[in-house]
Structure formats: structure tokens, C-alpha cells
# Entry
Amino acid sequence: MDLDQAITERRSIRGFTNQPVPKELLEEIITLANRAPSSMNTQPWHLHVLTGEPLEQVRKGNTERMLGGVKPTRDIEDYAEYEGEHRKRQIEIAVQLFEVMGIERGDKERRQDWVMRGFRQFDAPVSIVVCFDRSLLSNTIAHFDTGAMTNSLVLAAWARGLGAVINGQGIMQSPVVREVAGIPEDQIILTCVALGWPDKEFVANSVVSRRRPISNTTQFLGFDE
# Structure
């Protein structure tokens, strides 16, 4: 698969088979992602790759705390609520997903189950916890750089037949993730990536989120018409 195809066809995968992902394949993907650009070549990222029993411990801890009413505790707390067009697009993708899953607006039980899937890392066989150096917490460029690496990781996985979704729900109970994965305090937990082989029977995997035309996002100056 060439790069254009990977970028065009990639979509978020939220349903996975239970087939394991070989460590060697993960190392290959991460090695490629590690080539991502970063400001002044600072390379602020750290990855913690979980599968098997450690991942099950995270799932269990996340689920117990969320169902027990424990307030989400993330390393980065200043997540703003989306408004205006951003909120509209957030709702649009939720509607797309619920429609294909057949989840009615008033079906609180199934909606709750969908939310809990996110806290369970979408039951993926692998979770990659994405961190960066705490010393760069106030440096927003470090967040940008870590995001660039994460995008490269997701594309490299897709090009090899794997599916992934960048999943902020999976680290909402960051103390659980930190303890199980042994993440040192000098690293900030930013997000995680649920990754595995796509379940072709899981209908939500067919959803392709819409994009604005570049005429709405891009300005060209100094070019001949």
C-alpha cells in the first residue's frame, strides 16, 4: 500500500478480532513512526505497548473506577468543551456511529455500553500509551510533535493491515495506566492508541468520517489563477 492510499483509506477502527499482533510487527511500525519530525529534533515522545494481562488490568481498573463514579483523572486536565462548528462535527460522527450500530437516541443502556467500550480500549489486543517528557508540559510544540509521531504510527499500522483508533478515553483514569505500565512520573500520559486486526463484521468499522473541502481550510497566495 502506498502512502496516498494509506492516508485516503485510513479510518478509525473500534472493533477488533482477538488475533494477537506480533511484537516484531509492532517494532517495525514504531520504528517507522519514530522517524516523525519534531521541533529541533527533540523527539519528546515515549511509548508503552501493552497486551495480554497488563492490558486486561488496565481495562479492569478503568471500568471499575468509571462505574464506581471516580472522576476522570488525566495528566492533562485542560480539555476544553467543543463549541460551534467543532461541536457540530463531534455530534456528526457520533450520529454516524450510532446509526450504523442501530443505537437509538433513548437507548441509555446501549449508549452506556458504547462509552464503556472506549474505557476498555475497544477490547483491542494492543494498547499503545503515548507519553512525552513532563519537562515539556508547557511547551505546546511538544504536544504537536507527539501528535505527528502518533499519526505516523497509525498510518504505518494501516498500511500493514492493522486498524487503530486514537483513544483519549483509554487514559481517563491515568493513575491506573501509570501503575500497571510502570510509567515514570517524569512522563506525561497524553493519549493511547487501541490497535489490532479489524473485525470485518463490526459495522462501526465501516464508518468514514467526513472532511471539509480544502477550500474551507486553505488559503493560497501569490499563485497564478
Q: What stands out?
A: The CA atoms of residues 140 and 146 lie 10 Å apart.
